[in-house]
Automatic annotation (TrEMBL):
Organism of origin: Alkalicoccus halolimnae
Name of protein: Malate synthase G
Binding site for glyoxylate: R336, E428, G453, F454, L455, D456
Ranges for domain Malate synthase C-terminal: 589-668
Malate synthase N-terminal domain ranges (all copies): 17-75
Subunit structure: Monomer.
Gene name per UniProt: glcB
Keyword Metal-binding: yes
Binding site for acetyl-CoA: V117, R124, Y125, S273, R310, P537
Length: 723
């Protein structure tokens, strides 16, 4: 049973209270009375506005449902557009907007690069992500399918020199492409030396780089350096040299590795990739964020017989033409809070009411980040005195305005200047996409990024027009008109509000962490579309995707897009309804089974293991990154087909049971896994998955959190009873 402490007019969970008092407040120059009184005032002022925003969401959805009942199928564009204006769904556009956000770090303003998203409650993953600022190109190539396993280059238990040769050849081609010699190739180099502050290269005679400005500096002796640091498109590359190393001693130039600057920014996630349902979970979330901000987060784990300790990486130093230089060893960390929907019982008001979880997140994660501003830790995250908060799942400009008001009040309570807290606006809800310019206007002095998220956005697309008809198959969504319009319109607004000059225009996740060859072939498209950052699922993927930023000058692409892109609101309003929902029986069954398997594979770990982000094998055993966004689209898609008679409740149940047996089999190797079959009625995870579909129509905006949170708490309570 949770215990609470009365703090002014608030009831605060004892675990949270002790954590704030003993671990967070000391060193922030914020005293206990100021913080708790400030929290009380903010909750009193902004909880009503948050609740009102959620009521508006419901009212608008009811009006949309009513419209679709009266106008089934694809709507008349003019009538539909007019109706959306009448109900306030489409907002007046207003005057042009110019983003003026200041004091942003160069990782946001200057460096285009990969962006990781990592669950903050997993310390090992969080440290790995922070350290993914730098990644080994050799490791990334050797360990993935970018280098084919053929012609003797297979991955074997021991090091395969033949595969190693192909890795080294690939890396030399990368150097030749982006750091060419004035003559010859890096393949022919026998030594790299520094003479009179310049890089001199021995390759059948003394050579230099075609572009000498690409040489930044070195580490070690000038005549025999340990590392040569290069720069291209604002990203650094480090050629590491060690003739005694197992790889270096077989290399003509003594190169043991090529290190790439990779994940320049990382979203430390307290939202969709995290399962945090009570005070105990949330304190774990906040404690890891505190460890990242103070630089002392560490974790140990077993690797074979060996115990490995993981800590945050030091900065990288070098000697340049103008003396000592330093490059951060860690990604710039951005904290993703939860959205406006959920409440939490870790703090209650005087009348016993739960408070909005987003208010708690803003207050506590920003207070924690003040340690960074005061330089209380080993490292500095922001060199410019900013706190970066990513705010997801906002619907329209008034909800963005609410977030802006919240951050203003938080700044006053924690004692930092106005606009210290920067906001990343996730463009993942339809009402935000259609009114993005107005959303940006509300945070024009705070916004540091906008980005697109195909999965959540598709979930909202389905739920918004739930009663319009049966949706097209999930795989066909990627070719739909609304989606390309959404992606282009997001870039258009990022360019025409001048956000691109000082911040990030982000693109979505590559969801297949094992399919790196495909990623290398396709993900450059995100940069060619106008993005200057894009999400990757792992540090390895970050190192590989970094090569795209060497190939493509994103600033040049964006300048060109200024002239060619247009806002496509009308196309965005094309609802992805199936004109002829008479699929072949095999296709219909496959769609249902694919959705059911994805839902169950994710939900079973969320509800019964508290794992919010999983690599889940699909029907074809391709591993996909799943989080609540993928769950939202799958559950809404099945629920939509149920609503329109494409399947029945009985078929949903039987499909779920069939797929649960498959998921059980796929998880046989996990000692912590509890099978769902055969006792489906007593499996909390199975019942949660079934409820997400059968009750999908009634879930707010199609979100999965209310059911997941309730079912996870139910499972935790059962565990306590059996202890």
């Amino acid at each position: 049973m949770s215990t609470y402490r009365k703090q002014g007019k608030l009831e605060v969970n004892e675990l949270l209270y002790q954590f704030i008092e003993q671990e967070v407040l000391p060193g922030t120059k914020v005293d206990s009375t100021t913080f708790w009184k400030g929290a009380e005032d903010i909750i009193s002022e902004l909880q009503p506005g948050t609740e009102a925003a959620l009521e508006i969401r419901e009212e608008i959805q009811k009006k949309l449902d009513s419209w679709h009942r009266e106008n089934p199928g694809t709507p008349d564009p003019e009538k539909y557009h007019s109706y959306l204006k009448d109900i306030g769904y489409l907002e007046p556009e207003g005057e042009d907007v110019t983003v003026t956000t200041s004091n942003l770090d160069k990782e946001v303003t200057e460096q285009a690069g990969p962006q990781l998203v990592v669950p903050v409650n997993n310390a090992r993953y969080a440290i790995n992500a922070a350290n993914a600022r730098w990644g080994s190109l050799y490791d990334a190539l050797y360990g993935t399918d970018v280098i084919p396993e053929k012609d003797g280059a297979e991955k074997t238990g021991a090091y395969n020199p033949k595969r190693g040769e192909k890795v080294i050849a690939y890396a030399r081609e990368f150097l030749d492409e982006h750091f060419p010699l004035e003559e010859g190739s890096h393949k022919d180099v026998s030594s790299y030396q520094i003479k009179n502050g310049s890089l001199t290269i021995e390759a059948a005679g003394m050579k230099t780089l075609k572009n000498p400005a690409a040489f930044l500096g070195h580490r070690g002796k000038e005549e025999d350096p340990e590392a040569v640091i290069l720069i291209n498109n604002s990203l650094h590359v480090e050629i590491q040299i060690d003739r005694t190393h197992p790889i270096g001693k077989t290399d003509k130039a003594g190169i043991k590795d090529v290190m790439l600057e990779a994940a320049t920014t990382t979203i430390v996630d307290a939202e969709d990739s995290v399962a945090a349902v009570d005070a105990e979970d949330k304190v774990g979330v906040y404690r890891n964020w505190l460890g990242l901000m103070k630089g002392d987060l560490s974790t140990t784990f077993k690797k074979g017989a060996e115990e490995v300790k993981r800590t945050l990486s030091e900065d990288r130093t070098y000697t340049g033409k103008n003396g000592e230089g330093r490059i951060s060893g860690r990604s710039l960390l951005l904290m993703r809070n939860v959205g406006h929907l959920m409440t939490t019982d870790m703090i209650k008001t005087a009348d016993g009411k739960e408070i909005p979880e987003g208010i708690a997140d803003a207050l506590i994660t920003s207070l924690i980040a003040k340690h960074d501003l005061l330089k209380n830790g080993r490292f500095q995250n922001s060199k410019t005195g900013s706190i970066y908060i990513v705010k997801p799942k906002m619907h329209g400009s008034q909800e963005v305005k609410l977030t802006n008001a919240l951050m203003t009040r938080v700044e006053e309570v924690i004692g930092v200047p106005k606009n210290t807290i920067k906001i990343g606006v996730m463009d993942e809800e339809r009402r935000t996409s259609l009114n993005l310019k107005q959303c940006i206007r509300e945070v024009k002095e705070r916004v540091f990024f906008i980005n697109t998220g195909f999965l959540d956005r598709t979930g909202d697309e389905i739920h918004t027009s739930f009663l319009g008809g049966a949706m097209i198959r999930k795989g066909d969504m990627k070719q739909s008109v609304w989606l390309s319009a959404y992606e282009e319109s997001n870039v258009y607004q990022g360019l025409h509000t001048a956000l691109y000059k000082r911040g990030q225009i982000g693109k979505g996740m590559w969801p297949m962490p094992d399919e790196m060859k495909q990623m290398m072939e396709q993900k450059s498209g995100h940069l060619l579309a106008g993005g200057n950052t894009a999400w990757v699922p792992s540090p390895t993927a970050a190192a590989l995707h970094a090569m795209h930023y060497h190939q493509i000058d994103t600033k040049q692409v964006q300048t060109g897009k200024l002239q060619t892109l247009h806002p496509r609101a009308e196309d965005m309003l094309q609802i992805p309804l199936e004109a002829d929902p008479s699929w072949e029986e095999q296709d219909r069954r496959h769609e249902l089974e694919n959705n059911a398997q994805g839902i169950l594979g994710y939900v079973v770990r969320w509800v019964e293991q508290g794992v919010g982000c999983s690599k889940v094998p699909d029907l074809n055993n391709v591993h996909l990154m799943e989080d609540r966004a993928t769950l939202r689209i799958a559950s809404q898609h099945m629920a939509n087909w149920l609503e329109h008679g494409i399947c029945s409740k009985e078929e949903i149940r039987s499909t779920m049971e069939k797929m649960a047996r498959l998921v059980d089999k796929q998880n046989e190797g996990d000692p912590d896994y509890l099978p769902m079959a055969p006792d489906f009625d007593h499996s909390t995870a199975f019942q949660a998955a079934l409820e997400l579909v059968l009750e999908g129509k009634h879930q707010p905006s199609g979100y999965t959190e209310p059911i997941l949170h309730r079912r996870r708490r139910e499972f935790k309570a059962k565990q306590l009873q059996h202890q």
